[in-house]
């Protein structure tokens, strides 16, 4: 089916509202190109970016790279102020994907993430206005909710008007995730979060006290050693190698660790990174030597590897170091 597909009807979309996040989106497009994604690559960006010849050098360079190296199409959009309030730039701009009616289907991906495998197969799911994974890390809620990091969208002017109306009547704290659940929770096609929505913080649950998201109440989180919510089974044994090898999309969420493009000092990383799991403690056969401890450190190695890979690609793709790195 993929061989006879008119790929001009499909697109992977990114949204950028400020120059600060542009590199992240270019990195996503680089990954899509590296995995030979056939769909169009569309960058929704402020209108002035398409015509302004006085952009900062880094911004101009990254936009040029996106277009020339990765075949990205720029889609200028007008950022709107709703109900007399400041621009809800990030939330609304993401949902502008619903208005890209030149496409049959679009796949919206948050850029604070890493793509680990091809994902074009999502475009061939049964028709639906919206498809998204559940927020699996909130298993104790009365009603499961959709996450918004990865959204498969069927663009529609009618549905986009529903989005605009929902923003006009939203609660003050509502953002894209709340809007999506208000409109589509009962009708959306639910994508399996395994493998399409793995949180990096999942590797910190074993023996680690920090939560995976700053805004999630402690009572809503699973036990710090419980991976059942992600695995979908209370009997399956957690195998970090298996999990990362099957994952296609990893979203960085490790509060209080900041996002992966921000420098974190070594002491903070050591204090907050995943702990090794003690497998066995044995008495040493040598007198005066402490006990021998056998540990499984795969969670730590994978977690550190995800961040190291992001840092490397940020340098390779954008020519940029981490924000704050080298500051006094």
For this entry, give a set of tags:
alpha/beta; 7-stranded mixed β-sheet; 30% helix; Nucleotide-diphossugar_trans; 2 domains; 3-stranded mixed β-sheet; 16% strand; globular
Can you offer a commentary on this structure?
The protein has 328 residues and is α/β, with parallel strands linked by helices. 30% of the residues lie in helices and 16% in strands. The chain has helices spanning 22-34, 57-70, 89-95, 157-168, 176-184, 193-196, 228-231, 240-246, 266-272, 298-318, and strands spanning 10-15, 40-46, 72-77, 105-109, 113-115, 130-133, 150-153, 189-191, 198-199, 249-251, 277-282, 292-296. The strands form 3 sheets. A 7-stranded mixed β-sheet has the order 3-2-1-4-7-6-8. Strands 5-10-9 form a 3-stranded mixed β-sheet. α1 (22-34) packs parallel to α2. The chain is globular and about 75 Å long. Mean pLDDT is 86; it is low at 207-224.
């Amino acid at each position: 089916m993929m061989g006879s597909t008119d790929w001009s009807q499909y697109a992977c979309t990114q949204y950028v509202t400020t120059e600060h996040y542009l590199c992240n989106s270019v990195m996503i497009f680089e990954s899509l190109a590296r995995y030979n994604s056939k769909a169009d690559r569309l960058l929704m960006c402020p209108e002035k970016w398409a015509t302004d010849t006085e952009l900062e050098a880094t911004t101009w360079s990254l936009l040029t790279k996106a277009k020339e190296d990765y075949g990205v199409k720029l889609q200028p959009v007008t950022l709107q102020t709703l109900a007399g309030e400041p621009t809800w730039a990030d939330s609304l701009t993401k949902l502008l994907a619903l208005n890209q009616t030149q496409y049959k289907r679009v796949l919206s991906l948050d850029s604070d993430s890493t793509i680990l495998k091809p994902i074009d197969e999502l475009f061939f799911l049964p028709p639906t206005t919206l498809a998204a994974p559940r927020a699996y890390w909130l298993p104790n809620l009365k009603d499961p909710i959709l996450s918004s990091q990865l959204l498969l969208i069927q663009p529609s002017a009618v549905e986009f008007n529903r989005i605009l109306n929902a923003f006009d009547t939203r609660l003050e704290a509502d953002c894209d995730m709340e809007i999506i659940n208000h409109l589509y929770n009962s009708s959306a096609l639910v994508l399996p979060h395994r493998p399409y929505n793995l949180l990096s913080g999942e590797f910190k649950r074993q023996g680690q006290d920090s939560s995976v998201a700053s805004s999630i109440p402690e009572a809503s989180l699973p036990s710090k050693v419980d991976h059942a919510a992600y695995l979908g089974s209370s009997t399956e044994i957690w195998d970090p190698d298996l999990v990362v090898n099957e994952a296609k999309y990893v979203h960085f969420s490790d509060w209080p660790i900041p996002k992966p493009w921000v420098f974190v000092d070594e002491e903070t990383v050591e204090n907050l990174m995943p702990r090794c799991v003690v497998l066995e403690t044995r008495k040493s056969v040598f007198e005066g030597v402490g006990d021998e401890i056998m540990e499984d450190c795969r969670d730590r190695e994978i977690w550190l590897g995800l961040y190291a890979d992001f840092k490397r690609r940020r340098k390779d793709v954008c020519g940029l170091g981490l924000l704050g790195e080298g500051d006094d």
